Amino acid sequence: MSVAASIARLHSPLKELVSSVADAHHGKSEKDKTEVSEWIEKVAAGDAVKADGLRDLDAQLTPNTYIVSNYFTAADVALYGALHPLLAQLQPTQYYSHPAVTRYFDHIQNRPLVREAATPFAPAFSLVPFDLENAPSIERKADPPKEKKKVPKAADQAESSSAAAPAEKKSKKKEAAQTVDESVNKDADAAAPKEKKEKKPAQESGKKGGNAPKAAEDAGEPVPSMIDLRVGHIVDIMKHPDADGLYVEQIDFGEETGPRTVVSGLVNYIPIEQMRDKYLVGVCNLKPANMRGVKSFAMVLCATHKDGKEAGIELVEPPVGSQPGDRVYFEGSDFENAQPLSQLNPKKKIFETIQPGFTTLESHEAAWINPGTRSVHRIRTTKGVCVGPNFIGASLS
């Protein structure tokens, strides 16, 4: 059944809500379309949401931002509508016990086009408030230590052999006799002239590129093109459960593996409402880092006012029309076509060496200024130049 036909089976006003959310995709592939249709069918039949079945739904949503694939679909609007009457009645202690469902529902209800479409149907789909700031910390259990395989000691082997059965002792005597014969033959071989062994080419011994060793990927002076910058889209955001000053975002960088978890210290500088659904520039090849128990897989590029953090911090914005995963690069023949490193080596401090040259120009355009030549290299995509909306002479990091 097509997605449109499945939507037609929904009860009003949910049917009208799903139909009126403009950015709700019906599926980018045939497989996704089938799954979207199946989820809407489950909602229509009343099988998607049950008070005693939230635990299963919570487990399904824990690793995912959306119910189908890694982007927003009509199935998410339908599931949001089905969850609404249930979650609107839950007390904090009840919705705290289903953190993934609560996070998912709150993300969907706060999407701008969902809120716009839901307004005419109030109170059926009114905004449900959640006290997430006082949510209990999630207990994270450490992985059990891996058992190391014990290598038998010589003494243990000797003890084992002394405890062998009488039948095994006879076999050992035969082996000992063979060992004596072999040692005699080895002594004879040792007395014979030895032939020189030919050295194998480096490639045969496992090294690439013949005798010449492969150059390190990050060899030479740090240059800005080593940094992997991409357009990202915040598809979900919440405050860190264990740190008052940190956000935990799910950011879509256009990867098949889905959004990345990113932790950023922006709570005291940018309100969460201004972060939701935001397009930004992310540094995507930093080594993943644990931030108070949550692993962060990228960094949000921000502009800090020239007078310091207290004067303001804002997100660096990609040009209008940007899509998640769009490549962000530095202008100039030396950088435009260069490939970034797969991962920056923290010991080399490549980002730290380049970062002092990041700034915003009088035009608010983001750029890197070469400290040696003072040449200006704007930071851009194929659609235009990235900007710090309000700051001039800001530091980017």
From TrEMBL:
Biased composition (Basic and acidic residues): 183-207
Occurrences of domain GST C-terminal (ranges): 1-130
Keywords: RNA-binding, tRNA-binding
Keyword flag Phosphoprotein: no
Cross-referenced InterPro entries: Arc1-like_N (IPR053836), Glutathione-S-Trfase_C-like (IPR010987), Glutathione-S-Trfase_C_sf (IPR036282), NA-bd_OB-fold (IPR012340), tRNA-bd_dom (IPR002547), Tyrosine-tRNA_ligase_regulator (IPR051270)
A GO MF term: tRNA binding
Gene3D superfamilies registered for this protein in UniProt: 1.20.1050.10, Nucleic acid-binding proteins
Residue ranges constituting the TRNA-binding domain according to the UniProt record: 223-329
Segments of skewed composition (Low complexity): 154-166
Superkingdom, natural source: Eukaryota
Region (Disordered): 136-221
CDD domains membership: GST_C_AaRS_like, tRNA_bind_EMAP-II_like
Name assigned to this protein: tRNA-binding domain-containing protein
Organism: Phanerochaete carnosa (strain HHB-10118-sp) (White-rot fungus)
